[in-house]
Amino acid sequence: MNTRVLSIDPFRIDETVIAEAARVVARGGLVAFPTETVYGLGADALNPQAVEAIFAAKGRPADNPLIVHVAHLDQLVELVEVVPAAVEVLAKHFWPGPLTLILPRRPVVPDVVTAGLDTVAVRIPDHPVALALIRTSGRPIAAPSANRSGRPSPTEAKHVLEDLDGRIDVIVDGGPCDIGVESTVLDLTAEQPIILRPGAVTAQQLEPFLGPVATDPAVDGGAEKGIGGEAGVHVDGPVRSPGMKYRHYAPQTPCVLYEGTGAAVAAAVAARVRAERSAGVRVGVLATAENASRYEADALCIGGRRSAPETVAHGLYRCLRQLDEAGVDLIVMEGIEPVGLGVAVMNRMRRAAAYRTLVAPS
Ligand code: TXA
Ligand code: MG
Questions:
Q1: Are 250 and 152 in contact (CB under 8 A)?
Q2: Nearest C-alpha to atom 30 of ligand 1 is from which residue?
Q3: Of 358, 319, 45, nearest in space to 176 by CA
Q4: Closest-lying ligand to the alpha carbon of 150?
């Protein structure tokens, strides 16, 4: 299959580009498109064959369900059994935006989308290209991140091309994604709202509207700690968010992560880099701007500034891909404080490191 790349300016939408991509969706094809979080790999959510093609293109395990993207609440009502009052409140404050809600599904949603679960994940993305594609195609669009399964999510069209060239019909290139980490996944079907995946919408932001919001223990590794396995390695026991069973967001190169506060983490990373290199190991470092000059590495990528976690989120996956390509033997990651968007950043770094995490003494 020949993958076509269609460029578009998100600030001046070219409707002919959208119409072309929408036709591909309507006839059951696969279209990668930008959202405010990461690029998605979209297909008509109500067409089971089209959704199966997403799983095939990504090499995604069939038991990992997809998020359905809609453009407005009327479209959501068709997909879910009930719309709890909380949804309207959350929609008002957080949609369009990086918040995915898990709700009881209607039978119209194909099993392949939900991996047979009786719930469906939905969100309204905050990106003009994504919204235009959903509206023009007239379909709800099922879309996981547009990477090969287990790889870091794509935040630029060229990352999608690296992973999926020849496997999908179209990539709509709308430039780099703003946020850089995937949406917050919030399960509203349990007694208490529970975060299954941290993202740009934090528990603290949700609590004024919902009361206490829990976080699934699987988010921090839970049963998975210490496995350090391949993409697709299973964890025993029930997991609420099937995606949390798999090693994710990971470069092919082994990674270690240092956690701690600024000065301590920088000293620990610098010492590790020195020790590895004197033993002949080629080391790549994922650094923050504040500490980058302290690391004498074979390859270095600055994700962003420690003082501004949103900049680290924005650069994280780009850096992981760059360091992977640098041909080093080991990637050492400088962790940031798990506060605000830093919670989501650290979750992705821990998973990339397959929980090979070291805490720098402060
Ligand atoms: O920001 C995002 O959410 C991006 C953009 C493209 O919207 N999408 C994305 O999709 O990250 P994906 O497939 O890579 O991650 C979806 C996550 C997985 O962890 C999956 O297990 C979980 O959502 N999920 C989907 N449906 C679910 C359900 N019914 N119950 C529990 N978890 C669900
Ligand atoms: Mg993904």
A1: yes
A2: 241
A3: 319
A4: 2
Least confident of 251-255, 293-297, 311-315, 316-320: 251-255
End-to-end CA distance of the chain: 53
The response to whether residue 218 sits with its C-beta less than 6 Å from ligand 1 reads no
Q: Which ranges of the chain would DSSP assign to H, the alpha helix?
A: 15-26, 48-58, 73-77, 85-94, 111-114, 128-137, 157-164, 203-210, 262-278, 309-325, 341-352
C-alpha separations of 167 from 87, 163, 262, 293 in Å:
36, 9, 42, 40
Distance 194 CA to ligand 2 centre (A): 19
Whether the upstream peptide bond of residue 198 has omega within 30° of 0, thus cis, is no
CA distance 331 to 310: 21
Tokens of 247: 């090693």
Confidence band, pLDDT 50/70/90 cuts, at residue 203: very high
- 27-60 per-position pLDDT tens digit: 999 999 999 999 999 999 999 999 999 999 999 9
Q: Whose CA is nearest to atom 32 of ligand 1?
A: 241
Report how far residue 83's alpha carbon sits from residue 101's, in angstroms, rounded to the nearest whole number. 11
Residue 283 pairs in a beta bridge with 330
Q: In ligand 1, which atom is closest to the CA atom of 181?
A: 1
